Amino acid sequence: MNLDLLAECREAKRIGIAGHIRPDGDCLGACLGLWQYLVKCLPATEVWVFLEKPADIFKDIKGFGEIRSDFPEESPFDVFFVLDTSTDRLGGAEKYFKAASKTINIDHHVSNQGGGQINVIRPKAGSTCEIIYDLIDLEQLDREMAQALYVGIIHDTGVFQYSNTTPETLEKGAKLIGYGFDFPKLILETFYQKSYVQAQVMGRALMESIRFLGGSCIVSAIEKKTMDFYNVGPKDLDGIVNQLRNIEGIDCAIFMYETGVLEYKVSMRSSEKVDVAEVAAYFGGGGHARAAGCNMTGTFHDCVNNLSLHIEKALKKWEAEHDERNNNH
Fold first, then answer.
1. Distance CA 137, CA 41 (A)
2. Which CATH class is domain 5-192?
3. What is the DSSP letter of 19?
């Protein structure tokens, strides 16, 4: 559906914006891009962003310092936006969503059924920032807003290399960098650059990785005691699963880190042979066909065994369909 953002917000005195727990670049870019837009176009309206504390790599995005990460008690919002997620992953911001007079959910995850009173769910969009770009009045777009939206697009498309990148994605990216921000620096500092300790942890994860299912899949896990040893948190583990996926011959990469006793956060990346969104959904997670995640309980081996059953099924299905296509030719 087409949504007139300003018409939906014009009568509001207080607007809230939130995204998912452990916000990534797309979540942060969408929230701050929309925040900038509403503050600019509705100067008499109070607009707040609620997110778990994002990584400091995003500190140069306008509005970063305005993010509320303490989730205090608030009077009900007139309009509340949920961006880049379904409403069950809001964490501390869920109470604002439940109390709001009007709720609007904007997302691009295929697993999102739409939990707002108004829903704009576009699974074919490469990022939620792309959808925000489509919904705003482009005459109001400025350098800082363009920078926020560009961050989201590059993070969810892997700097335009993932299969969710479309010609429209590239056109939007081109228009955004036309606003003159230092996009090579932005890409380096928010996507590629690692601290020395982050590089050490990644090296350890790669060194201790295990291939399975005939070598077509790979898995690595970091235990809580290892994270404590290096003094790193979940944000410091970004990029490890992508690096595993980049290894030659890998169709599905799994990276897990321990969040509690017999509890793991699981991230998956895949080739066209495995729809990891389907695999993740089976365990209560979600995401995209080539990038998805879930939470699991059990030992490391329990989790890998359970995941491998579904991954193997997907691989066999792809091979059968591939053979059938070849036979038909």
1. 10
2. alpha beta
3. -
Token pair listed for 310: 């579904």
**Which residue's entry shows tokens 């509890």?**
263
What's the DSSP call for residue 79? E
Neighbours of 224 (CB within 10 A): 13
Domain spanning 196-328, CATH architecture: Roll (3.10)
Return the domain boundaries, the chain. 5-192, 196-328
Classify the C-alpha dihedral 158-163-164-165 as positive or negative: positive
d(CA 218, CA 306): 14
Contacts with 36 (C-beta within 8 Å, 6 or more apart), sequence order: 62, 63, 142, 144, 145, 148
Residue holding tokens 């900038």? 36
pLDDT (tens digit, 9 = 90+) per residue, 68-89?
A: 999 999 999 999 999 999 998 9
Query: Is this prediction's pTM over 0.85?
Result: yes
Residue 11 CB coordination number (10 Å): 11
Average pLDDT of the chain to the nearest whole number: 95
